[in-house]
């Protein structure tokens, strides 16, 4: 099995990853226009300002959409032992959407659009990823 690929931490994503590691889901908030955004970017997607701060999300959200990978394609061999798993777009209470794994269900077929989920970081070989679990 090949090594699982991990995110490459950038200067403007460092606070996000450190937050996940410490159990906090941080999202960016623009100090100029007040917009929340995720994924982390060096500038505000709404107004272009580079004056961004971080706020802690409630960690609560609902599944907007989901997929369940059942076969390995291309260079994704590192995930072969984990399939099938649930990969979902989660709408957080703050109004931003995050892509993450969802756990806490006996079978992937039990997961539905609209389900309530909560943030739960998972350690994958020393790196913490933002997973969600059934609320
Ligand atoms: Zn802005």
Overview of the structural elements:
The chain has 135 residues and is mostly beta strands. The chain is 6% helix and 38% strand. The strands form 2 sheets. It has a 5-stranded mixed β-barrel with strand order 4-5-6-8-7. A 3-stranded antiparallel sheet has the order 2-1-3. Strand 1 (26-30) and strand 2 form a beta hairpin. The longest helix has 8 residues, at 14-21. The mean pLDDT is 95. The structure holds zinc ion. Zinc ion is lined by residues 30, 32-33, 35, 44, 46-47, 49.
Write the layout of secondary structure elements.
Layout: H1 14-21, E1 26-30, E2 36-37, E3 52-56, E4 60-67, E5 86-92, E6 97-103, E7 116-124, E8 127-134
Parallel strand pairs: 6-8
Antiparallel strand pairs: 1-2, 1-3, 4-5, 4-7, 5-6, 7-8
The site of zinc ion has 8 residues, from loops.
